[in-house]
Amino acid sequence: MNKFMRFAAVALLMGATTQLFAQEAEEQPIYRFTETVNVKHTPVDNQGSSGTCWCFAGTGFVEAEILRKYGKEFNLAEMYFVRNAWTEKVVKYVKMHGCNTLSQGGEVCDVLYALDKYGMIPDADYDGKVIGETRHMHNEMNEVITNFAKSIVKRSNGRLTPTWQKAMPGILDAYLGEVPESFTVDGKKYTPKSFAEAYKLNVDDYIEIASFTDQAYNKPFMVEIPDNWTWTPAYNLEFDKLFEALDYALEHGFTVGWAQDVSDKGFSRKLGVAIVPEDPDSDKLWEEVVAEKTVTAEDHQKAYDNWETTDDHSMLVVGIAKDQNGTKYYKIKNSWGEAGPYKGYWYCSESFVRLHTVFFTLHKDALSKAMKKDLGL
Fold first, then answer.
1. Are 261 and 229 in contact (CB under 8 A)?
2. pLDDT digit string (tens) for 248-288?
3. Of 1, 107, 305, 347, which is most buried with the most CB atoms under 10 A?
């Protein structure tokens, strides 16, 4: 190899190396996390084009509880719970003369109620995809059910017919499929009810906890949000104690259902990170790690009162992490498939969780003895 060729080869190698380093630098994530707590749970799923995040979070919660209690991992049918929740919603809507929430939304605790009353089915035996779509697609079904319920309360015959409830299963069968009478798991035949009994979770063992300054502390109160169509109460904790309870649960091996808001600038779908930036209009936002606001109980209450903190999304809290600066985050299992840089997981800063939490769902045993005593449990 002559001198010129050796020089050209070295130059080419240096150029390739420089390009590789530049590419690695470009691909280096802005936020880098180290997990400190990771509770056992089941894989991320995908709600598709359906407003059923509550059910995916709730089903993931139930799956994690069965895994914790029985050491068995199941992929349960979200659409079986969705089906039965819709049935209950329409019945309640009619009983309330049309003056109750009627939408596809809900809360994590709705899955527990459906589980208790109707049982559970593996997803392999009831995936709810019978209209030819590869992902959940509920827009037409939701409109049909909503219009059906509204037509009932109009009492066009001058009174409620005694047969209207017979029509509801037909709608659900058409869009989600007929429910199998039985199915086999691990070589054993079950019905939905017997399967739930075999891996029983007592619905009375689960509670909701929240923190609002306009409610008495350590007492249950009605959570005033539209999707709380079951009128489920939550225990009201002092603000700091609410997040002490969250940490205690995670550190002792419990996942936590989470109703919260993901609609502001601090939630990045691209980066899989949620924060409360001190300056939400900063040019550095999402270009580097920025300073966050310290969130107080008053900030949280104001955000709730102004509809800046709503329950527009439900997810499952499965761990705790810290970023490269030591800032605390919570690891969140979402239901948008393996989207984002963390394959379906989000990292939400402590400030974000403090600002945008509506309430948590958890097992009573996930609370410390002192907390149980404070709440009279």
1. no
2. 999 999 999 999 999 988 999 999 999 999 999 999 999 99
3. 107
Distance, in Å, from the CA atom of 290 to the CA atom of 279, rounded to the nearest integer, reads 8
Rg (CA), the chain: 24
The string over 275-312, giving b where at least 16 C-beta atoms fall within 10 Å of a residue's C-beta and e elsewhere, is: bbbeeeeeeeebeebbebbebeeebbbebbeeeebbbb
**How many Å apart are CA 158 and CA 249, to the nearest integer?**
53
| pLDDT, tens only, 164-203 | 999 999 999 999 999 999 999 999 999 999 999 999 999 9
What is d(CA 335, CA 60) in angstroms, rounded to the nearest whole number? Answer: 9
Give 237-304 as a 3 state SS string. Answer: CCHHHHHHHHHHHHHCCCCEEEEECCCCCCEECCCCEECCECCCCCCCECCECCCECCCCHHHHHHHH
Under 8 Å between Cβ of 80 and 127: no
The SS3 assignment for 111 reads: helix
Rounded Cα gap, residues 127 and 65, in angstroms: 21
Strands (E), 20-114: 34-38
Q: How confident is the model at residue 162 (pLDDT cuts 50, 70, 90)?
A: confident
CB distance 65 to 201 below 8 Å? yes
- Report which residue type is found at 327: T
Phi-psi region of 123 (alpha: psi -120 to 50; beta: other; left: phi over 0): alpha
Cα 305 from Cα 129, distance rounded (Å): 39
200: tokens are 């029983």
Q: Where are the beta strands (DSSP E) in the chain?
A: 34-38, 183-185, 188-190, 206-210, 220-222, 233-236, 256-260, 267-268, 273-274, 313-322, 328-333, 345-349, 357-363
CA angle 144, 145, 151 (to 5 degrees): 90
- Distances from the Cα of 263 to the Cα of 89, 231, 238, 254, 319, angstroms: 26, 24, 25, 27, 22
- Per-residue DSSP letters for 196-231? HHHT---GGGEEEEE--TTS-TTSEEE---TT-TT-
* Start-to-end C-alpha separation, the chain: 83
